Amino acid sequence: MIGKLKQNLLVACLVISSVTVFYLGRHAMECHHRIDERSQPLVSSLHTTLRTGQNLSTPFIYNKDMPLIFIGGVPRSGTTLMRAMLDAHPDVRCGEETRVIPRILAMKQMWSRSGREKMRLDEAGVTDEVLDSAMQAFLLEIIVKHGEPANYLCNKDPFALKSLTYLAKIFPHAKFILMIRDGRASVHSMISRKVTIAGFDLSSYRDCLTKWNRAIETMYTQCLEAADKCLPMHYEQLVLHPEKWMRRLLKFLNIPWNDAVLHHEELIGKAGGVSLSNIQHEYLGFMSHLDYLSSVQLFYLINVTSHLCHTGCVWHTMVMLTGYCLLFFPPKNSV
């Protein structure tokens, strides 16, 4: 009786041991598989694209060495127009503003500027290398996943170019387009259209011009420092001579010319075309030469005397440095 009991216990122990070994082996294989996955480049699960119409047999692979394009500038300077024109190109996808990218970049900038915070992060092992790697992964996920795949991916968050130098560091093959517009016209546009911008007091021309001057100075300085990677693009010239400036831009980006960039309005809202929110659709306008000049003349006639002459000279610096003359009426936009 005792011998049979021992035999049963032995069999039970063998069964339990076998099951334990099986599950431990399976768990080890899963861990090994996950480690292998993490060592591979980031892969998107998107298998089709409306932009090219191709059925992708392999996953869309993306990494920090992609030729990303960043469009920026002070709001109401033509960033949406530039984004729409590039989005019309069959090889390019920009998509709408993410809104989160400038905020995470501003947070990273804040950590770097605070000596005490940086010391605490370093002590915790959260070094610049760790943060840079995390920022690369986060920004790539947002840019890639918020739209369909394309040969060239771009991002249009106007204030992201406040961190142009940092973006050029973590994305070594990225290129940047800085949209520039006469600050007086930009401010008039944001105030007359009631375009809410964080930190801008739309009831004060003086405040808006001061904030415009500060923002464009930050971006313009970084753009000049990265001259081989950043192209300043004047909104007025893009409106008056679209083909000339789009050819120059596409050459700078190493993207083949396509006439579709001159007819973006025909692709708005269409599959693989230009995606616009209702607000952006309202704001986007590709004005003719005469319409553009009329709007500028009207702005100067009505607003210069009553608003700008009382703001002091704090905003003059960047208006002149970016190529606009303070003395001519109507303004001469031959930059």
From TrEMBL:
GO molecular function, one term: protein-tyrosine sulfotransferase activity
TM regions (residue ranges): none
EC number: 2.8.2.20
SUPFAM superfamilies: P-loop containing nucleoside triphosphate hydrolases
Designated name of the protein: Protein-tyrosine sulfotransferase
Record flagged with keyword Cell division: no
Biological role: Catalyzes the O-sulfation of tyrosine residues within acidic motifs of polypeptides, using 3'-phosphoadenylyl sulfate (PAPS) as cosubstrate.
InterPro entries per UniProt: P-loop_NTPase, TPST-like
Reactions catalysed: L-tyrosyl-[protein] + 3'-phosphoadenylyl sulfate = O-sulfo-L-tyrosine-[protein] + adenosine 3',5'-bisphosphate + H(+)
Top-level taxonomic group: Eukaryota
Keywords for this protein: Disulfide bond, Glycoprotein, Transferase
Family (UniProt): Belongs to the protein sulfotransferase family.
Recorded GO CC terms: Golgi apparatus
PANTHER family: PROTEIN-TYROSINE SULFOTRANSFERASE 1, PROTEIN-TYROSINE SULFOTRANSFERASE 2
Keyword match Glycoprotein: yes
Gene3D superfamilies, per database record: P-loop containing nucleotide triphosphate hydrolases (3.40.50.300)
